[in-house]
Amino acid sequence: MKNTIENYLNLVVNNLINLDNQGDLANEFVSVSTAEAEKKGFFARDFGMDQWDWPQGVGIFGLSQNLEKNREYIVNWAKTEINKGLPTKNINTICPLLSLVDFKEFEQLSLEWMSWIDENFPRTYESGLQHITSGVDKFSLRLNEGQIWIDTLFMTVLFIGKMGMKYDKQKWIDDSEYQFLLHTKYLVDRETGLFYHGWDFTNNSNFGGNFWCRGNSWFTMAVPLYLRYLEDRLPESIVKYLKNLYINQVRALVKYRGEDKLWHTIINDSSSYTETSGSSGIIAGIYMGIQQGLLGAEEFESFCKESVDALIDRIDEKGNVLGVSAGTAISNNKEDYKNIITAPMAYGQAMMICALTEHLNYHKQKGQ
Questions:
Q1: CB of 94 within 8 A of CB of 113?
Q2: What is the rounded distance in angstroms from the CA atom of residue 260 to the CA atom of residue 337?
Q3: Cα–Cα distance between 155 and 117 in angstroms, integer?
């Protein structure tokens, strides 16, 4: 089994590095307005690795799980994108720095962007990180005024925490703690333990109250990663708070897993398709939690194995990860999530890499 998983992992990694930027999808949307294309998830910048934004940032994070093998690619990718001219600073374009902060070559860039976050980042009511993203091109912005999204914890807050640890800046560590507290305050559903996609301070609303699969997976991964990066510097109360939120979410996710052992893109709506990137992130996050002692191995080992088998069925012979929902704007309408196209995406490849890597890490830890 180990060799089989490793073979699939190598296929997915090689495909990520060579992923087609848009494939045949560009032809499908050539006569469609930008607004209509984006409503279905077609954001041209999201495909392949030839950009600097969140899909590529998650891709680099996935590749960094085997840094010895992928270091040269990561460094060359970053230098190429920097030479092309970096995009506007925003929640999503910070994501590549989550991995690049560990490279000496990009130390000054990381400090420059962290200083901007500290001093100039737009904030919502209660000082949340406003979920500003790239606009129609990499030099424009969507302000999403008054909005916080669950994605932010993975895309930006983990970077803030890592920078605080690396440079011993308590102010940055404190901000990362506060963002976890604020985002979970407004995004957790106390009845289920799942997380809403976002919160709008202007209208005091969770939009349509949708439990989006990939959004939930950002939290499932972010908590064990955050505790791994910062636990020794966090107050015991914060650690306990995050652990309980994480455990409650995982237990809810267990209840809502679909018949095919993956999760629906609207987690509690079985009429929505099961989605591969979010399911991969959930399994990766659960494996992280087991290895860090947040969850019991006996309770979750067979559960994770079932989902890993289902995830492998989503990998084709070329290493494409299938069933990955494209870029998903927040919406009040549940049907908008159901209508998002699926296609091989850099982040889908990367989240699969994380799931398979954590599966192997867990069994290595057990001595198997």
A1: yes
A2: 19
A3: 13
Nearest partner of 63 among 7, 12, 2, 5, judged by Cα: 12
Domains in the chain, CATH or no CATH each: 2-18+43-365 (1.50.10.10)
User: Which residue type is seen at 338?
Assistant: K
Say what the pTM is: 0.96
How far is it, in rounded angstroms, from Cα 358 to Cα 366?
12
Contact 148, 121 (CB under 8 A): no
Q: Cα–Cα distance between 355 and 8 in angstroms, integer?
A: 11
The 3-class SS string of the chain reads CHHHHHHHHHHHHHHHHCCCCCCCHHHHCCCCCHHHHHHCCCCHHHCCCCCCCHHHHHHHHHHHHHHHHHHHHHHHHHHHHHHHCCCCCCCCCCCCHHHHCCCHHHHHHHHHHHHHHHHHCCECHHHCECCCEECCCCCCEECCCCEEECHHHHHHHHHHHHHHHHCCCHHHHHHHHHHHHHHHHHHECCCCCCECCEEECCCCECCCCCCEHHHHHHHHHHHHHHHHHHHHHCCHHHHHHHHHHHHHHHHHHHHHCCCCCCCECECCCCCCCECHHHHHHHHHHHHHHHHCCCCCHHHHHHHHHHHHHHHHCCECCCCCECCCECCCCCCCCHHHHHCCCECCCHHHHHHHHHHHHHHHHHHHHCCC
pLDDT tens over the chain, length 368 residues = 555 999 999 999 999 998 866 666 666 776 678 888 788 888 777 888 999 999 999 999 999 999 999 999 999 999 999 999 999 999 999 999 999 999 999 999 999 999 999 999 999 999 999 999 998 888 889 999 999 999 999 999 999 999 999 999 999 999 999 999 999 999 999 999 999 999 999 999 999 999 999 999 999 999 999 999 998 899 999 999 999 999 999 999 999 999 999 999 999 999 999 999 999 999 999 999 999 999 999 999 999 999 999 999 999 999 999 999 999 999 999 999 999 999 999 999 999 999 999 999 999 887 76
